Amino acid sequence: MATTTCKPTSYMCFLLLLLLLHFNLGKSQLEVNYYSSRCPRAEDIIKEQVTELYKKHGNTAVSWLRNLFHDCMVKSCDASLLLETVEEVVSEQASSRSFGMRNFKYVKSIKDAVEKECPMTVSCADIIALSARDGIVLLGGPTIEMKTGRRDSQQSYATEVESSIPNHNDSMSLVLSRFQQIGVDLEATVALLGAHSVGRVHCTNIVQRLYPQVDETLEPEHAQYLKRRCPDPNPNPKDVQYSRNDLVTPMIVDNNYYKNILKHKGLLTVDEELATDPRTSPYVKKMADDNDYFNQQFSRAILLLSQNNPLTGDQGEIRKDCRYINRNAT
Ligand code: HEM
Ligand SMILES: *[C@@H]1O[C@H](CO)[C@@H](O)[C@H](O)[C@H]1NC(C)=O
């Protein structure tokens, strides 16, 4: 008995305590205002840049929201998404799941402005998180208290993109399990899909629901509208043919998405499934009825997504240029 107790006076016990303390210190966590002492103006500079970009190209804000999803869903919120193909790195952006993603070049404006004030201090992973937060506000969505302190990966996970991010026509069971795996619960998953109240979908992701036969779950007039938007059954993915997600408030993050999908006017198969699957439909109805409830769940869900498995402490690095790991940067 006595041999298993840790006597504070014993030398071995002291070493053990030191060891435990060391691991605890090494395991830093995200916190609100992580940069307040390290780079006090960091969050203001990011907000200024996101606002300026939004004024010039409104859809940048839409991209920042999608970036958070595609970065955090693959392994970790670690800016692996932003790495470009070079030497041993294959970009996650080359995956078919990243189809339609845009505005990556403007991330550089944000990072450069931050670097000017505080070199090598603010991570690209935090820029993804904070630009998403600020973009959501510009798009009329809720104000979210985003934590910071993420660090950047030193590799890309291109081979894991397709097994992490669901496809437009995957089953709701698969979608739910993918989100569950990264700590996003059922209700939060329903809320996150509300991001599809902004932006667009290219015809390549819609035509399977129109040709050769119209998907019978589509509302008939909406199907006719989509056929006019996408007249070619085999569109060239390079053609800029698309439909907007929300025809009424296309640039506002709101609960209109849920109203649309309940009327079977969604664009993607997963949007339609969300409205009809017995597990998700009660939440879809609640969100369609109550925008405040949607905002509250959307905020909670964005936080869960943004906190997936971050690199912290001395893990990873702070990239200088978000497109390259430091050892590949010129
Ligand atoms: C089951 C999960 C999801 C699937 C299968 C999915 C799939 C897609 C697809 C196929 C597009 C259209 C791409 C194109 O044709 O250009 C799209 C657009 C978009 N998605 Fe998702 N998505 C999902 C979840 C999410 C989540 C969780 C978010 C953010 C929180 C999000 C944000 C967006 C945004 C903002 C756009 C519009 C992008 C633009 O206009 O540039 N999506 N999504
Ligand atoms: C889903 O769509 C892709 C094309 O984007 C297609 O290759 C695949 O067969 C479809 N899967 C199902 C289950 O319909």
TrEMBL record:
One of its GO terms (biological process) is rhythmic process. Heme b binds at residue 196. Residues 29-326 form the Plant heme peroxidase family profile domain. It catalyses: 2 a phenolic donor + H2O2 = 2 a phenolic radical donor + 2 H2O. It comes from the Eukaryota. Keywords: Biological rhythms, Calcium, Disulfide bond, Glycoprotein, Heme, Hydrogen peroxide, Iron, Metal-binding, Oxidoreductase, Peroxidase, Secreted, Signal. Disulfide bonds join 39-118, 72-77, 124-322, 203-230. Gene3D superfamilies: 1.10.520.10, Peroxidase, domain 2. The active site is at residue 70. It is found in: Secreted. The record marks 66 as: Transition state stabilizer. GO terms for molecular function: heme binding; lactoperoxidase activity; metal ion binding. Ca(2+) 2 binds at residues 246, 249, 254. Its main location: secreted. Substrate binds at residue 166. Its EC number is 1.11.1.7. Residues 1-28 form the signal peptide. PANTHER family: PEROXIDASE (PTHR31517:SF80), PTHR31517. This is Peroxidase. It comes from Arachis hypogaea.
